[in-house]
């Protein structure tokens, strides 16, 4: 998978997260702007874990169609796709420590469940929550 470093919020597909293979990489005109490249991790949910000083709020986002389209910005979510995640308390100390090591009082970790592990794929220093359903925003 590849995700452009500067997503810019564009909806025209120019910065779309997508699957890549050797053929796509070798194609004439391949757009090689700076990107994050990572192996695909199969999962039926993704997490946005908000760390605010000592408080940790993990949000679970159901993503059953992730294998077809890994770019969350293009999905049609409903309120039922979002919930406060249970079962991530054991990862909270690690995420607090990561935020502190990065010098951040506020950080949003994008993560995927990988068995009993939590695979952090990205750390955002300006992660938002305005798009979440009201019950989660008020958590």
Q: What labels describe this entry?
A:
single chain, 139 residues, alpha+beta, five-stranded antiparallel β-sheet
Please characterize this protein's 3D structure.
With 139 residues, the protein is an alpha+beta fold. The protein has helices at 22-26, 92-101, 134-137, and strands spanning 2-4, 35-37, 45-52, 55-62, 82-84, 106-114, 117-124. The strands form 2 sheets. Strands 5-4-3-6-7 form a 5-stranded antiparallel β-sheet. A two-stranded antiparallel sheet has the order 1-2. It is globular, with a radius of gyration of 16 Å. The model has no long low-confidence stretch (mean pLDDT 77).
Helix content: 10-25%
- The class by helix and strand makeup works out as alpha+beta
Low-confidence stretches: none
Distance between the termini: 32 Å
Question: Which descriptor suits the 3D outline?
Answer: globular
Question: What is the overall pLDDT average?
Answer: 77
Q: Could you give the order of the helices and strands?
A: EHEEEEHEEH
- Any idea what the radius of gyration is? 16 Å
| Largest sheet data | 5 strands, antiparallel
Structure summary, number of beta strands: 7
Number of helices: 3
Strand content: 25-35%
């Amino acid at each position: 998978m590849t995700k452009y470093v500067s997503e810019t919020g564009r909806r025209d597909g120019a910065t779309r997260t997508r699957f890549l293979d050797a053929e796509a990489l070798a194609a004439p005109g391949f757009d090689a702007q700076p990107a994050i490249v990572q192996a695909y991790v199969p999962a039926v949910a993704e997490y946005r874990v908000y760390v605010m000083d000592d408080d940790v709020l993990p949000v679970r986002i159901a993503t059953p169609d992730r294998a077809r389209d890994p770019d969350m910005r293009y999905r049609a979510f409903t309120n039922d796709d979002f919930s406060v995640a249970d079962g991530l308390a054991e990862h909270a100390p690690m995420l607090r420590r990561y935020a502190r090591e990065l010098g951040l009082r506020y950080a949003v970790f994008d993560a995927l469940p990988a068995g009993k592990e939590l695979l952090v794929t990205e750390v955002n220093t300006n992660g938002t929550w305005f798009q979440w359903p009201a019950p989660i925003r008020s958590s």
